[in-house]
What we know:
The structure holds two protein chains of two kinds.
Chain A: E1 2-10, E2 16-25, E3 30-35, H1 41-48, E4 56-61, E5 64-65, H2 74-78, E6 81-84, H3 96-106, H4 111-124, H5 140-152, E7 158-162, H6 170-185, E8 189-194, E9 206-211, E10 214-215
Parallel strand pairs in A: 3-8, 3-9, 6-7, 7-8
Antiparallel strand pairs in A: 1-2, 1-4, 4-5, 9-10
Helix pairs in contact in A: 3-4, 3-5, 4-5
Chain B: H1 2-21, H2 23-57, E1 62-67, H3 73-85, E2 89-95, H4 97-106, E3 125-130, H5 135-146, E4 151-156, H6 159-200, H7 202-210, H8 215-258, H9 270-294
Antiparallel strand pairs in B: 1-3, 1-4, 2-3
Helix pairs in contact in B: 1-8, 2-6, 2-8, 6-8, 6-9, 8-9
Transmembrane segments (chain B): 21-47, 173-194, 222-247, 274-297
Organism (chain B): Nitrosospira multiformis
Function (chain B): Part of the ABC transporter FtsEX involved in cellular division.
Amino acid sequence: MISFSEVSKRYPNGFEALRNVSFTVETGEMALIHGHSGAGKTTLLRLIAAIERSTTGSVIVNGQDVGRLNDAAVPFLRRNFGLVFQDQKLLFDRSVFENVLLPLQISGFESKAAVRRVRAALDKVGLLDKEKARPITLSGGEQQRLCIARAIVSRPSILIADEPTSNLDMEYAKDIMAIFKSFHQVGVTVLISTHDVELLGGTPQRILTLSHGELTG
Amino acid sequence: MNIWLSYHWHALALAFKRLALIPFSTLLTLGVIGIAFSLPAGIYVFLENVETLSGQFSSGPQLSLFLKLNATQSEVGKTESFLKENPHVASFRFIPKASALEQFKESPGLAGVMDGLEGNPLPDAFVVTAKDVSTETLKTLSRALSELRQVEHVQLDSAWTQRLDALLKLGRLAAWMLSVLLSLLVIAVVFNTIRLQILTMRDEIEVAKLIGATNGFICRPFLYFGTIQGLVGGIVAWLIISLGIHLTDEPVKHLMQLYETDFRLYHLSMGDSLIMFLFSAGLGWLGAWLSVVSHLLKIEPR
Lengths: 217, 302
């Protein structure tokens, strides 16, 4: 469960990215965070992953107050998440397989089990035949799918995606959204930020709308 | 335990991979570290050899005591008693004038010298070994022996070994000072190598932190990297010294044969070699640790 209680975030330059935001996303729920560029979507996700700390209010993830975690505990919190970034953050000097393997190496997985898991994750996103390729040789859509494979390989309880479709055309974007929905269907909590209203059409999931740092819907 | 081992195995493999990825830079760094270690270690080996060699030419703190030519048998006996009772004397050996003459005649090229002389011109003598090498003890003993009426001359045979000993001490001090300076150089070389790696791998470090890597997980490969560099640098130094010994061993052996001495150059013992490898690996680790603490831990995901 993710819970925000009167959370505000003000950056050192005085910009207030979030103002008194409160909401709860239950375990297994899928929520879309919608808003214009600069509305505070990315800040909200960064607060959940403890990349930023809130100025006021509390962010609770799986019962842990993220703002009160000490630095040593943050990596272990992050292992609960599968993170998908707008700019993918892939390692271009490593193969597709090695990119997906990284979270399992970090968790200290036994190598045979890790290989099985990596192949399963690549199969899930349709990249099994490209495991030896370098990310630079993949298309934008494939790179985003690779990022998703890396996010799901350690079977996280929460999947967080920041604008995962922003650089993709509509067809690829729908593919990506379909992958997220499939994880939601097996009980994973999914939180996706997007500014693309077309992606919201026909989705039965919960939508949180942010405008100028405030939750408006 | 398995997870702990897997973390270390992963870090070690990654460190070797990173070393292999920059072969030229790696060779250059190992060369610098190897040469840096070989200088003080080489001086140490040289000094050890000189000390061993000096030991072959001198059997300890000795004095030669020459009696007067007309010394009687009873005076020889008195001298012997004096030496037995003196607390500074460890042992002594009497060389009668007749034996001295025989030895002299057997010396190559000196046999004919005595033929033109009447009688034995050599005195009775004692070779005295003192209990310790301190200058004070030797001087006290020398003074006491000189005061004996029947004694003609006392010669301090170990004076030159004392001078050599002082020189060796000075040499060892210089080797230590050089070791400290070059150790700092090794730390600086490893520190800078790791710093450059951290700068080029900034994105990778950020990604790893974002997906749950602890500081330990990120630091470990760099620490292994520095340790391997230090250790291999130490091995390179050992090889440089070995090569030096191999090249000079035969000429030195030949020279020593001319002095009728059987002497072979000493190499670093197993214990000394292990200490050098551990020390070099430790310095590599220290350089890496300093670099990691001052650069890597400050990187946070943006």
